[in-house]
Amino acid sequence: MPWYSKFYDSTGLVEVGGVNLPACSWFGAPPDDLMEKIKTDMSAAEQSGDLVDLFKCRCKGPELTDRQKFKGTIKPEMKLYKNTFKKILGYELTTPGFADDILNQLEVLGCSHAREYYETVKNEWQQEYSSQMKNTGEWYRRQDFERKEVNESRKQEKQQEVERKNRGLSREYVVSQILRW
Hints:
Blueprint lengths: L2 E6 L6 E7 L10 H17 L17 H7 L9 H13 L3 H11 L5 H54 L3 H10 L1
Antiparallel strand pairs: 1-2
Helix pairs in contact: 3-5
C-alpha cells in the first residue's frame, strides 16, 4: 500500500508538494517496476516544480561566538562598566590579542581612558589571582606535611608487624586458627 509524503517550506507550516511512495517490505527490495514508477513520479514532481520551493529556504550561516557578539556590541557613547573590562580580560586570556583590538576600537570611538581602565581591572585581577595561588600553595604544603605524618605512621605499623612476625606467629594466622575452632 503506497503512502503519500508531503514537503513543507522552511517554516514547516505550508505544504509545498508531495509524492506517492511505496511501502517497502522488510524482507527485500521492491520489484523493478515499482522502482521505475518511483523514478517517474519523482521526475514528474521535479518537472512540475513541486520540489523547487523545497530547497528555496535561506540557509543559516555560522553562528557568531560570544566573543564576536561582544565585539559587535561596542558602539559610540555606550556606557562602560567594570564588568565590560572584565569580559575583555577574560576573552584576552583565551584569545591573545583580543584586548588590543577592543581597546583600539574603544579609543577610535572616543574613550581615551579605556586602556587605563583595562589595566586597572587587569592589575586587580592579577593581585587576586596571586593571593589565591598563595593560599592554594599553602594548602598543598600542609597536605604534603600531613602525608609525611601518615607515611611515618605506616612505617611504624610495618615495623610493629615485622616485630610480631619475629616474635612468633603472625596475627592473621592466630585469628584464622581461632575462627576455625
